[in-house]
């Protein structure tokens, strides 16, 4: 637990100034955010200060080098074993803005004097982008997403094989009712801490989402995302299907593919079959809007794939024509043979090669997963805690002289003005996120740069402490979560590229 300076006390209660709520905390109690407590008259940061250690004993990777050499000739330290990185998890905040960041840590990396400024930011302007690997319809674009009946975000534009949500944001946190803000803040914190959150979509599905886990849609856990759209699936597997069936239809909400009409079928010499697809024809072998979106075949609302077929053209179709219909995940499939009236008749037994081809479609689908990216704008408190001239920090980040990380995980910095960061929460230490009841999300952020660059941007030089002092205060030591570059590595900076 990290001790914090005490501003004032009233009737034995300590006033905490870590956020605008300014709680008065009685002895033995914690504030509204559960992040700060009064322990025997001292303000204590409750969550453990977290240090990431790049060591073999902590799970870091050491690559063998110069086999056969004596141990005293080379110690294997090509990964800087024993190098610590003080994260902002459990560090505390800069609020109010005039204070330097809780930890401004110096250390040497590859002979270069480096500084890392560590703070937990209070983010009112923040949210989460959620990627749900599924073709199933979860709700119309722009539909409200609700938790406990309160709007916390909306469905946004889908991506290839995935549905997307945009959650949080300042308007939900502070622009609605007090209940809406509280529930939005709690839902964001739990999602970003990799906890499961239940939500519903207006006019759509009930969702149960947890970062790094398969999505659950209307009570059904997804197992795989599609191999591609219907057209892409035709292109990938046309050669395998050429000699085992006469026609293939890959049912897809976006682009349904038809083998005999598709360019892949043309190049393989597959003749026309007289098949007719209900929907809007795009380029040959590609159809849009064959059905409404839903949770059925290929993300459509159909349970019977024959519903998208019209009558076969007798000029090209013939009795005995073999037809395979399959979804983009291989989860649904049917094998049909045309009868004397050119009507598809479902076969209860699939030829072994056809069944194997369906299995290959399924095999090429990646496991369905929920991805959660925290996104936040680093504003006044953060930048003032780093430097007395905040705009210089922004310019330093954009010039690749300052590296931004969140809990040690690499953060993507959006182009344009300000410092808007985005980070995969699964790469961050557990329980990296908190809240303050303003409401706002508390998230860790670190700025790493050369000592000379820190001095040039007007940094709080008087507040710098050696890394050993900060490490001595840390209660939690963890191994790197990903194989991403170490935050102080030269490759992260313009001067080291």
Q: What can you tell me about this protein's structure?
A:
It is a single chain. This protein is an alpha+beta fold and 497 residues long. It has 9 helices and 34 strands. The protein has an 11-stranded antiparallel β-sheet with strand order 18-17-16-15-12-13-14-11-26-30-29. Strands 9, 10, 27, 28, 31, 32 and 33 form a 7-stranded mixed β-sheet that branches. A hairpin with a 2-residue loop joins strand 13 (150-159) and strand 14. The radius of gyration is 29 Å and the shape is elongated. The model is unreliable at 56-81 (pLDDT under 50).
Topology:
Layout: E1 2-4, E2 8-10, E3 13-15, E4 24-25, E5 36-39, E6 42-45, E7 50-54, E8 83-86, E9 103-109, E10 112-123, E11 126-133, E12 144-147, E13 150-159, E14 162-168, H1 170-174, H2 178-192, E15 197-201, E16 206-209, E17 216-217, E18 220-221, H3 230-241, E19 247-251, E20 256-258, H4 263-267, E21 280-281, E22 286-288, E23 322-327, E24 333-338, E25 344-346, H5 352-363, E26 370-378, H6 380-386, H7 390-398, E27 403-406, E28 409-410, E29 412-413, E30 419-424, E31 434-436, E32 440-450, H8 451-456, E33 464-466, H9 467-473, E34 476-478
Helix pairs in contact: 6-7
Oligomer: single chain
The residue ranges in which pLDDT falls below 50 over 5 or more consecutive positions are 56-81
- Give the class from helix and strand content and strand pairing: alpha+beta
Radius of gyration from CA coordinates: 29 Å
| Individual helix count | 9
Main sheet strand line-up: 18-17-16-15-12-13-14-11-26-30-29
Mean pLDDT: 90
Could you tell me the strand content as a percent range? 25-35%
Amount of helix: 10-25%
Q: Give the distance, in angstroms, between the N- and C-terminal Cα atoms.
A: 38 Å
Question: Describe the biggest sheet?
Answer: 11 strands, antiparallel
Looking at the structure, what is the overall shape?
elongated
Total number of β-strand segments? 34
